[in-house]
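Hi W.,

Here's what went into the run:
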Amino acid sequence: MFVSLLHLLTPLSCFIINILSQFFFIWILSFGLLKSELFGFIIGFLLVLMMGTQTDSSVQDVHAIVATKLIIYTSLSYCYFHFVNLAITARRIRLIRELYSFEDGLTMGEILRQYNARDMIENRIKRLIDSGQIVFRNGRYFIGKPVILLISEIIIIMKRSLLGKRSEFD
Amino acid sequence: MAVLVTGVGLFLSAFFIHLLIWRVRLPNKQTRSLLLIFFSALALWTIPLWLFPLLYSKIGLPAVTLTEYLHTIFLFISLTFAYITTYSGIEVDSPSLVMVMIVKKAGCDGIMKDDFENALTDDILVKPRVRDLVRDNMAYLANNKFKITHKGARIARLFIFYRKILKATDKGG
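Here's what came out:
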């Protein structure tokens, strides 16, 4: 019973270690956000692997136990990655932070003075260029590394199969 | 092995029910509907098993221990939240992904900086998200001004706090 409960708590405890390691990398080692997330994830993943094999079950069961734990751990880490992403890049979170700092509220014009498409393009194009996904040459933008492009195409396929359209504006 | 097969199988069953419902009619509040579908599927599996533990063995399925039962629920919930997180990226267009697709569409010649910026306006990138805040009760419109609700303020405080922990100094967005 105790060993079984331990199996249950392994992914959760490794996920907490992942988050705490990320804070350690940011605050103590001054790592960037993405790098700290990656290292935190790897540490937790390795711990799940190590703790998952500590069992007296048959080989087939060990594989299934480890796979289950890794799926749970990776799913939780994936949700957390998106939560961090929301805090940093989400438009709605940025807008709600702007509204929060103005008690009397803002008209649409005032909102757009605080945060508009131009600001957004600047923020995002900088991130895309810094990560090599887009290349800026002779006043023109080109596709660089294809990672984000590939993700975009997968999301469009999912949009078409689930929602029957390519974009929210179709 | 039973936990893995049952957890993934249950998730896939709920996923196909969601696909069927989406084919018939797209719900207005999609995330809420997804939560309802997935957690109803979980309840349909767990409640009979909890109330009638011998039922499954009588129909030839292996008996499930309490920890296996909890483990399966945990696996299912993790997969469900991971899917709903992904779904939020499908429901609305991410600006970064839209940008990459615009550049891709331009082909080998690339796209001029001005043309690129003119393709992405406030009407596409900002105004729909302001309307979403009102729709989701995070803001309301009074005297032509958008003001934050209690729910919106709680979310804003959470993210302001978390951004401090992450040492995020730029304005973001």
